[in-house]
Design brief:
Blueprint lengths: L39 E6 L6 E8 L3 E2 L1 H9 L3 H8 L9 E5 L6 E10 L6 H15 L5 E5 L10 H15 L20 E6 L2 H26 L7 H9 L1
Parallel strand pairs: 1-7, 2-5, 2-6, 6-7
Antiparallel strand pairs: 2-3, 4-5
Helix pairs in contact: 3-4, 4-5
Length: about 240
C-alpha cells in the first residue's frame, strides 16, 4: 500500500524538543565579572616603601638589587644576614620572608629570587607577580613592589613592572559568585599593590593593554565556572557579544 506523503514526515517526540526554560533571552544574571577581585594595582615612581609589606629582588649568587640594598641599610644589615643564613641564593622561583625589626614601620620584607638578569623575560616577570600575590594575599593589605633596572637584562624596569602587574592580577582571580559562607580568615586581605619603577607613564600604558587581556581571561574563567542552567549556547553567545 502506498503511504501518503504527510504520513512519512518525521515527528519529534516531546522529550526531544527544547525545554521551555531555555529562552532565547539570556537571564539577567548571566553577566560575567571581569575584574577578579577588588584589589587595586597601581604604579608610582621608584622609592622604598615605609609601611606595609615590601618586595625586592635578589639576583643569582645572592646579589642584592638596589632596592634590596636600600632595605639592608635601613634594617642595619638584616636582609643580607638572612640571605646568607639559609639556602636562599636568589635563583628564580626562590623566596624568603623577613619579619622586620621594630625600628621600622614595615610589616615584612619579601625577597624574591630573580635568577640571572639576562634570563629575565615577560613570562618570568608574570610568574613573579603571581608568586608575590599568592604569598602575601592573606598576610597584609598593602604591598609595595620595588622594580629595579638590571645590567644585562633586555627588559627595562617599566616593562618588567607591567608584566608583574599582569601576573599578580591574573593570580588574584576568585570565582566566589555563589559563596555565601566563607570564613573571614579565608578571605584575601590584600587590597592594594603598588609597583614602584622608573618611567611610570610607560608602565601604565603597557599595563592598560594587559588589563584588556586579563578582562578576557576573567570572562572566560567565569563562563566555564558557571553552572549549565546559567551558561548554555544562547547565553554563551550573548556573553561573547558583550
Amino acid at each position: 500500500m502506498r503511504m501518503k506523503a504527510a504520513d512519512s514526515r518525521i515527528q519529534l517526540t516531546p522529550f526531544l524538543c527544547r525545554p521551555a526554560r531555555y529562552s532565547l533571552k539570556p537571564p539577567a544574571d548571566c553577566k560575567t565579572r571581569v575584574k577578579g577581585t577588588s584589589m587595586k594595582i597601581s604604579f608610582a615612581e621608584r622609592s622604598i616603601p615605609t609601611t606595609g609589606a615590601v618586595v625586592v629582588g635578589v639576583l643569582s649568587g645572592r646579589k642584592l638589587t638596589p632596592g634590596a640594598q636600600a632595605l639592608d641599610r635601613k634594617t642595619k644589615g638584616a636582609v643580607m644576614r638572612a640571605v646568607k643564613a639559609g639556602r636562599f641564593k636568589g635563583d628564580r622561583g626562590q623566596s624568603l620572608t623577613l619579619m622586620v625589626p621594630a625600628a621600622t614601620r614595615l610589616q615584612r620584607i619579601y625577597l624574591v629570587g630573580l635568577g640571572k638578569a639576562k634570563e629575565m623575560n615577560a613570562l618570568h616577570a608574570q610568574a613573579l607577580g603571581g608568586r608575590v600575590h599568592a604569598a602575601l594575599a592573606g598576610a597584609c593589605q598593602t604591598v609595595g613592589i620595588v622594580v629595579d633596572a638590571m645590567d644585562g637584562c633586555s627588559m627595562g624596569s617599566s616593562d618588567i613592572a607591567a608584566e608583574i602587574a599582569f601576573g599578580a592580577r591574573l593570580r588574584s582571580y576568585r570565582f566566589d559568585k555563589y559563596r555565601t559562607r566563607e570564613k573571614k580568615d579565608r578571605k584575601p586581605l590584600l587590597k592594594n599593590i603598588k609597583i614602584l619603577c622608573n618611567n611610570v607613564t610607560r608602565a601604565r600604558r603597557l599595563s592598560a593593554d594587559r588589563n584588556r587581556v586579563a578582562d578576557g581571561v576573567f570572562m572566560t574563567r567565569d563562563l566555564v565556572s558557571e553552572p549549565s542552567n546559567v551558561i548554555y549556547p544562547e547565553t554563551l553567545a550573548a556573553a561573547a557579544k558583550t
